[in-house]
Amino acid sequence: MEYVYPDYYRQFTCIGGECPDTCCAGWEIVIDDKTLEKYKKYPGGFGNRLRNSINFKRKSFKQYDRRCAFLNEENLCDIYTEAGEKLFCKTCRQYPRHEEEYENVRELSLSLSCPEAARMILSQDRLNLIYDEKKGHSEDYGDFDELLFSQLLDGRDAFWKLIENENVPMAVRMMQMLSMGHHLQKNISEGQLFGLENIYDHYLSEGAANRMNVYLKEKWEKPGSRYHVMKGMFSCLHKLEALSADWPGKVRHYEKILFSGGRKKYEALHQYRMPDKIAEQLLSYFIYVYFAGAVYDGMPYSKVKLAVISTMLIEDIVCATAAEKGELTFEEIADAAHSYAREVEHSDLNLQRLSIMFRHQKCFHIGRLCGALLEW
Ligand code: SF4
């Protein structure tokens, strides 16, 4: 079995009561069967409290005001205080550690939705992965498409090369990602799995970024594109399930700051745009966590769109919050990224809805995205 993880993965420690947010509110915490059995037999008064605070039908902790029944007023977990980590269920023990499963491969990551993990992810210079081969039984998923998986891993390396190419403006790198993702999708949808490396070579070749920039400017440049496209994207956020009670209000607040003063004011807010290095880390993160998952649904383009669109949305949230405070700080950026990731990444329903909207909503069309990026 091969384990893949970022080099900072093992350095994570939860900051507990110091955390500006908590991972124990807003979403349903599902309890694994083994722990559920342990909770059923746990002795004493705390055992009674455990059993009274679990929804056995849904196999999850009950919630009050969308907070886990064990989350106390200091935002600390009473299960931890009672018995330490050994009494945690699998979800609580692992979060914010995330695992993607592929045949004979496990890819581990820290979730951007945890504020402390977000700080670690975004403060990296680049995404360095550790590949750790461990002896053990070999898996056979039966219908796992090994050829597609290996092609996607090559593609992922190519996306990282595009993302890290500092000689090319950030917005052009993002347009290249969209274009290469679109091209890749076409071949995969047509069953052409051989020769994908020609696509990667084409986008990585010398002068490719410049040629593409000139072509896209002719085709999609239209003053005011970014304002209209981003306005459309923010309105799509209201179509998602809200995990935190205050999220819809926050989105309305960002929209007010960004769009209520018209296009000129919106453009002026981008004096607070986040550093390219941080945008690189966001793009690399989303590509790492989601792109290879296309082996299961054959849709790499929607994963690339998720990376680019999420970065564009986080950038605008950062501009709105920094404009309000009059300064741009790293903490502000990490906070924007973690709040966004918490809403989008922790709901399968939201990821599905976004994937559908990427195909059908005008603001997510590749031409409009490129038009917005030309004004980035
Ligand atoms: S969100 Fe992260 S830092 Fe905060 S309590 Fe949860 S694991 Fe700890």
Q: What does it look like?
A:
The mean pLDDT is 94. This protein has a 4-stranded mixed sheet. A two-stranded antiparallel sheet has the order 2-3. A hairpin with a 2-residue loop joins strand 4 and strand 5. With 376 residues, it is α+β, with helices and mostly antiparallel strands. The protein is built from 18 helices and 8 strands. Helix 13 (276-290) packs antiparallel against helix 15 (300-325). Iron/sulfur cluster is lined by residues 14-16, 19, 21-23, 95-96, 114-116.
Fill in the keyword field for this structure.
376 residues; alpha+beta; four-stranded mixed β-sheet; 8 strands; binds iron/sulfur cluster
Topology:
Elements lengths: L1 E5 L26 H9 L2 H9 L1 E2 L4 E2 L1 E2 L2 E2 L9 H6 L6 H5 L2 E6 L2 E6 L4 H8 L6 E5 L12 H18 L6 H20 L6 H9 L3 H13 L4 H13 L9 H13 L2 H7 L7 H15 L3 H4 L2 H26 L4 H16 L2 H13 L5 H8 L3
Parallel strand pairs: 1-7
Antiparallel strand pairs: 1-8, 2-3, 4-5, 6-7
Helix pairs in contact: 5-16, 6-8, 6-13, 7-8, 7-9, 7-15, 7-18, 9-18, 10-11, 10-18, 11-15, 13-15, 15-16, 15-17
The protein binds iron/sulfur cluster.
